[in-house]
């Protein structure tokens, strides 16, 4: 077991206070700090300080001893790669609207772009790697997101509540076919509207949203989000598309799972995110980055539903967030002030332990000990002996544990 030294990604939508405060650094940081990466992503792998005083990346260590680090099963299944990446997300401003391809779509898209000779780091590359990218986000603070298409009957109600003359024909389109095909038709129409039509429709819709918010209408939160996105991207079709997605507020400890095809957008808040170690993202707007609408339309799932909010299956000390993603499993462990029961972690598969509140003592069966402070994380290779984890301080303590899925 070793402490991880992790990279911070400075994307513009990040917070200048959340990650520095979590790590006990000076706030505000000079630049936005959006994501803390824990894992072996080739773009920014975590590092471990060796007994010889030399720092190595987790990627190098895995290459040197894949079976020792990953265990035989994970090494074989994922071709000697760590299948997941653990992150802290510090979202100050909304991200882009995006969806991720399935394993089959990723393999096909990757092969197609390789054959076309598009460099893997090109800005218009959709499939830099051939693998899927399911994600699970677990809130550390109140966390806001748009995800998955709302029940069409509810969306018709929303569109009628913000009715404007320009919107009426689209509302009736969905009302006439209130199912996933109707949703596909409306989304496709909006996302491909000529700029001139958008420039007419968007101001009308934004004005209607202002009115709805003033009157404290039923869809207040939805309209406020549309207004926020419209202010940042006043000519972007993604603002209209935002009217179609579920507007979610997660409390700390609640999570959502975003499988392949789920259209989503993170709005605000701090979360722990676990995802497959892939960069395959298809964006449809609300970003200066590469947008590929035809390719996005091929992968988006238009099945409409309420997005389930996951509280996790209760475990001895917290909850396990089960999903159908074979790449990862995330669990959470909590100690209230004064509680000091021990958590036993048996590796067998690769594990990352992340402390998000308080301070923890980790003691291995071979006698090795390590202190894990708030904002710190550690790597536990599959072949390591079992460890016992317990809080060091008297206050509330929280641990997240990431491992490969089943
Ligand atoms: Zn995503």
Automatic annotation (TrEMBL):
Transmembrane segments: none annotated. Zn(2+) binds at residues 98, 100, 135, 264. InterPro entries: Man6P_Isoase-1, Mannose-6-P_Isomerase, PMI_typeI_cat, RmlC-like_jellyroll, RmlC_Cupin_sf. It is an enzyme of class 5 (isomerase). It holds the Pfam family PMI_typeI_cat. Belongs to the mannose-6-phosphate isomerase type 1 family. NCBIfam families: manA (TIGR00218). This is mannose-6-phosphate isomerase.
